[in-house]
Hints:
Blueprint: H1 3-19, E1 50-57, H2 62-65, E2 70-75, H3 88-91, E3 97-98, H4 101-113, E4 119-122, H5 128-140, E5 147-151, H6 157-161, E6 169-173, H7 179-186, H8 191-205, E7 210-212, E8 215-225, H9 231-244, E9 249-253, H10 274-287, E10 290-293
Parallel strand pairs: 2-4, 4-5, 5-6, 6-8, 8-9, 9-10
Antiparallel strand pairs: 1-2, 1-3, 7-8
Helix pairs in contact: 1-5, 4-5, 9-10
Amino acid sequence: MKNKDKIKNIKNVLEYFLDHLKSCKLCPRECGVNRLKGETGFCGTAKDLVVYTAFIHKGEEPPITGEKGSGTIFFSGCNLKCIYCQNFKFSHRLEGKPVKKGDLAQVMIDLQNKKAENINLVTPTHFLPQILEALLIAYEKGLNIPIVYNSSGYEKPGVIERLRGIIDIYLVDMKYYTPEAALLGSKTRDYPLYNRKAILCMHNQKKEPVWQKNTLKKGLIIRHLILPGLTEESRQIIRWIKDIMPSAYISLMSQYKPYFEAKNNPALDRRINYEEYASLAQLIENIGLEGWFQEFEPPDQLAGVYFKPF
């Protein structure tokens, strides 16, 4: 899709997104706060867009990283806030600095000038109004690389539907299959309900992936982070993907460590073991899903606790 079409699509939905700043219901929490007046809901953010860091990231999935790396922007705040979050410094504690929409647009252009394969928006949901405004400016300045929507998966399908024709790649988590597991890890029982509906909407938009050599230009990748003791959750997620969208790509992640509050939770206070990892990788291979496996013990430097603010 040409940029002029993306600009048109953004303009068509921008008023809808900006209205949420007056009564924010961008995510399933539907806090209803007036962020323009400084009120904050669950994510902890008001009207100012807050960024923790932005850089060329070479640790994403191979089709996202490509040859040059992904132009990744980490936003502060989060509408899910998992108790084990490796990005807790900025997702929970809101470290970062306010960035005006014009400055965010320039960050995108600078990443493109550094040969980034794409613009990778990490945890963008609560800042969608400001991000869309920034994209309009960036397109006017010549932005022409794919946009990645990198999400926890706790999304409203109606919001995702309005991103049709704007987002090129959905890189989305599928963390839990049952409300009980979602309550344990993210204190959010309805995560599975919204997550599956949102992923179905993403899949409907991206049924036909577009590749350029080994780099994904349009499509959907479903991420799943293995959690200790919850391999049955993982199996159910893998089987759901196979049953509902067998052509989807899956990314199996093994980098879990008990960061933040997880170290105080006996159920989550350990790394996964090799048997847990290997059994799930084998299941994916056996049932014929396509995707990528993170190595069993990936470098710790991939975690957000090691990222430097910009």
